TrEMBL record:
Keyword list, A-Z: Kinase, Transferase
Presence of the UniProt keyword Transferase in the record: yes
Protein name: Kinase-like domain-containing protein
Source organism of this protein record: Gigaspora rosea
Presence of the UniProt keyword Transferase in the record: yes
Domain Protein kinase: 93-370
MF annotations from Gene Ontology: ATP binding; protein serine/threonine kinase activity
PANTHER family (alphabetical): SERINE/THREONINE-PROTEIN KINASE TNNI3K-RELATED
């Protein structure tokens, strides 16, 4: 048996047709039924799975009690197992502890007894799972009656699930429901270092420029995917950027973008008459503060403020009240953060382009990425 070499079959060593997956065997070498000659196994991203199990897996019932939620969860069932959503009974969680509270959600850490799918056990004829996995429970306030905010975020999650780590978007494992309030829950991957705000507040003196570049690369990668899919995030700030396990060399070391709850398609005109302002003031673009529409450039302004925070360890305008006077100064081009002395020139130039008052003068995410 030959070893896998790039996209070559490990059995016959022939180059495979590109499929978007790194299969170990080509179609010709995959095992087939002796009578009907159809493939007995399908590659599902984590391993080869008997096709009869694959069919059962696709037809697993979802019983959230709400048809809209069931349909959105089922929409992911053609994905690889590690990227599909599940309806997760609340009793599957233990050791639940609140770790955050915002205007629209409460955040808990918990142990998921069953855990996410990690592969297929041919010996046990079952899917392997990462049992007793630490996860985050994001409880959306006042969502028991299925408000539009919940469904909108779930739709965005469904869209971003495949290869979410490659896209630097936080991964969601499924949906649950809080028994005390009947509010719905997103079950998300746990990021051990918390938010960018948390990490910089506690560790800034140890953050090297190499680390800052790595953080920025991952953030730009995440925004790039969001914008490529014609979505505006609308709420990029240091609390929605999550830091993984920096001691790992795997995908769990990445910096990821979270909270797609306020994200909307770029062509959504539902708020043209009275645009609503979301987010934390220092990260909100001046045109949005002036009641103009969010745009891709609005996200770029927020990125510029994140870049400054990475150089200073503080939120922009940390020494001022986030009030109407600050909003006026931002809109009047009076207030921008003071660039620190150790900021490399190339970083400073890009950062200043991002926080230009005129949105047309800001670079696109593709220009920044390239």
């Amino acid at each position: 048996m030959q070893k896998l070499v790039k996209d070559k079959c490990e059995n016959c060593n022939k180059i495979q047709q590109p499929t978007g997956k790194r299969n170990k065997l080509c179609n010709s070498c995959q095992p087939k039924c002796a009578s009907c000659k159809k493939r007995k196994h399908l590659y599902m991203g984590v391993s080869y799975v008997p096709i009869v199990i694959y069919t059962q897996f696709q037809n697993v019932s979802v019983s959230s009690g709400n048809q809209d939620i069931d349909n959105l969860i089922k929409a992911t069932h053609n994905n690889q197992p590690k990227f599909r959503l599940e309806w997760i009974p609340f009793e599957d969680f233990t050791d639940i502890k609140q770790i955050g509270n915002g205007g629209f959600s409460e955040i808990y850490a918990a142990t998921w007894k069953k855990g996410k799918i990690t592969g297929w056990s041919e010996k046990g004829k079952r899917f392997n799972r990462n049992e007793n996995q630490t996860v985050v429970l994001k409880v959306l306030k006042d969502s028991k009656d299925i408000n539009s905010t919940f469904l909108k975020e779930l739709q965005n999650i469904v869209k971003s699930q495949p290869n979410s780590y490659m896209r630097r978007i936080i991964q969601c494992y499924g949906v649950s429901q809080f028994p005390k309030t009947n509010d719905y829950i997103f079950v998300m991957s746990y990021m051990p270092n918390g938010s960018l705000n948390d990490y910089l507040s506690n560790n800034f003196k140890d953050v090297t420029w190499k680390m800052k570049l790595d953080f920025l690369r991952d953030i730009v990668t995440g925004i790039k995917w969001i914008h490529q899919n014609k979505i505006i995030h609308r709420d990029i700030h240091d609390g929605n950027i999550l830091i993984g396990n920096l001691e790992s060399n795997g995908p769990d070391s990445n910096t990821l973008i979270a909270d797609l709850g306020f994200s909307k398609p770029a062509n959504d005109e539902s708020e043209n008459s009275d645009p609503k302002i979301y987010g934390i003031m220092p990260y909100i673009a001046p045109e949005v503060l002036n009641k103009k529409q969010y745009s891709f450039s609005s996200d770029i302004y927020s990125l510029g403020m994140i870049m400054w925070e990475l150089t200073s360890g503080n939120r922009p305008f940390y020494d001022r009240a986030y009030d109407s006077q600050l909003a006026l100064d931002i809109c009047a081009k009076i207030s921008r953060p003071i660039i620190t002395e150790d900021t490399p020139q190339c970083w400073a130039i890009l950062m200043q382009k991002c926080w230009q008052s005129d949105p047309l003068k800001r670079p696109t995410i593709n220009e920044i990425y390239d």
